[in-house]
Amino acid sequence: MRQGTGSGSLTGLLFVLPAILLLVILLYGPAAMSIFNSLHTLKGVTPDRFVGLDNYARLLANPTLPSVVWTTTVFVILATVLTVALATLIALAADSLPATPARIAQIGIILPWAISAVVGALLFRWFYISDLGLFRHALAALGFGNVDPLMNPTTAMAALVASAAWKKLGFAVILILAGLKAIPRDLYEAAHVDGASGFQVFRLVTLPMLAGPLLICTVVLAIADLNSVELPLVVTGGGPLGSTTTVALAIYSMAFSQYDIQGALTLAVLTFLINIVLVAVYVRIVRRRRA
Amino acid sequence: MSMAGGTSRRWVQGLVFLFLGVMLVLNLGPIVWGLASSFTPTLDIVSYPPRLVPSALTLEHYETAFNNGFLRPLRTSVVYAGVTVAVALLLGSLGAYALDRIAFRGRGLVMFLVLSGIPLASGAAALIVPTYVYMTWLHLNNTAVVLPLVYIAYNLPIVIWILRGAIGGLPAELDESAMVDGAGRLRILFQILLPICKPAIGAAALFAFVGAWNEFVAGSVLVDSPGLRPIQVAIYQNIGFFGRDWGPLLASASLAILPVVLAFLVFGRLLISGLSSGSVKG
Q1: Residues of A whose CB is below 8 A from B102
Q2: What is the rounded CA–CA span in Å between residue B2 and residue A129?
Q3: What is the pLDDT of residue B213?
Q4: Domain extents for chain B?
Q5: Which residue in A61, A133, B272, B280 has the fewest CB atoms around it within 10 Å?
Q6: Which of A118, A226, A268 lies closest to B236 in CB terms?
Q7: Across the interface, do B121 and A255 touch by the CB < 8 Å criterion?
Q8: In the prediction, which pLDDT does B275 show?
């Protein structure tokens, strides 16, 4: 971190005060208050009576919870791994291109990330899932039969994972590509002089040097997938039979369709704790890389 | 290099191009096909097999979308996003300057709150019910200020992070010589440092704009009145309203992505550099 020019505790505080107040009141405030609220009964939206961990006990007794936890785990792991793996391949391919095609490929690949999740999910459905869409016609023409992937739990999960990978791919590519560009070229030359094969160079030079960006990418994607409401809501609606209801969608519909604010709040606090672990990992990596 | 090496190299190059081409088609297919279908007559949309070239071009779906009141949420979101960009840039540049240039007590903590805020703000699912309860408790639900406030808070961390990186790249001599000339800190920031960081300001503004424009979850629960409803919520409601009538649905979706797609085609390089410089948001 740069040394400040001149000291001035009061001035510094005054400069950051508006921003920090906003963050504390609007971002950290709700989070802190929800932990307090989850230990009380709610009367409307105000905490009423202290009940200790009763709300958590009620939530853990909820028969749908194991299925939600399992679905979320499968979805987050598959979506994150698929995205990072595909993005690494694309970044390696784009890295070998001349500057102009590489830039066109980057802008083309990042567009799905830039558009909103609701519209992205809608367009994904129109192209890949709808019986009127191009993808199913192409599959049918190739002899795969025209089946609705949303009728079957396995294919519905595959569709949800694919939609998440499609939506986030460009983000991961840009990050990994920046990591590739930061690898000193003489490392490659040294490896070639030592007679390393193409794959050996990748395993012994590229991959270790890329560990930081890959890790940041994985953590950010995991947070995003864990918290994505729009994709399950619009792509699969959580079905069939709840087989694609992730914890994010469960919280959302528990609160705003079933009006179980207390249950949703408690589940949100648990999800929030997972977020905190992921955020802590993220902050550690970013700080170490900046240091 | 031997003949065999040259041929295999060309093969590899060909495979690389093929792979990237397939990926681009799979990646852009939904966006391009969605845009194209929004100008296609309904008869073509429902035809089997699908027509790659439409029989005619039409604006009927856009008319239908506008006749169903799509202009209002569009306008609302322009205001929300505009306010978010303006306030986030103002508060963000003040904060970024102090974090980089002034040694003050608590700087480490402030830095931590900002940095954690970047991934935290994308944790919408875990935050939305707490935020809903909190805002209802503050009697801010369904008011004109609630969504701008939330959007500013969500996007402020990334804006501070980008601007701090840019200011940090400027030599301290700039400040010092201005200080000798008697300039105060605010003048140094707004008249000397910020004008040099235009690309970073552009990137930060773009992030804040896209963040506010694309937000759905908070928008869907914190406001209720039609006049306060942002565009993404309107599109989600259109899904239920138009059902299998894809034409108007795709027309409203196309309108919603138009500003973002244009911004990316024009300022794509800014964004990519903003992303690459370690400012990270999923």
Answers
A1: 4-8, 11-12, 15
A2: 48
A3: 95
A4: 28-58, 68-276
A5: A61
A6: A118
A7: no
A8: 64
Closest chain B residue to the Cα of A91, Cα to Cα: B20
Answer yes or no: is pLDDT of B52 > 80.
Answer: no
All domains of chain A, ordered by start, with CATH? 17-52 (no CATH), 64-290 (1.10.3720.10)
Q: Is B68-276 a domain of CATH 3.90.1300.10?
A: no
Three-class SS string for chain A?
Answer: CCCCCCECHHHHHHHHHHHHHHHHHHHHHHHHHHHHHHCEEEECCEEEEECCCHHHHHHHCCCCHHHHHHHHHHHHHHHHHHHHHHHHHHHHHHHCCCHHHHHHHHHHHHHHHHCCHHHHHHHHHHHHHCCCCHHHHHHHHCCCCCCCHHHCHHHHHHHHHHHHHHHHHHHHHHHHHHHHHCCCHHHHHHHHHCCCCHHHHHHHHHHHHCHHHHHHHHHHHHHHHHCCCHHHHHHHCCCCCCCCCCHHHHHHHHHHCCCCHHHHHHHHHHHHHHHHHHHHHHHHHHHHHHC
Give pTM, 2 decimals: 0.89
- Tell me if chain B has a CB within 8 Å of the CB of A175: yes
Q: Token pair 């105060």 is at which residue?
A: B184
Query: Across the interface, do B253 and A119 touch by the CB < 8 Å criterion?
Result: yes
* Closest of A90, A96, A132 to residue A112, by C-alpha: A90
Tell me the pLDDT tens digit for each residue of B190-220.
988 999 888 889 889 988 999 999 999 999 9
Q: Is A288 on the interface with B (CB under 8 A)?
A: no
| B5 vs B24: CA distance, rounded Å | 28
What residues of A are in contact with residue B149 (Cβ under 8 Å)? 22, 26
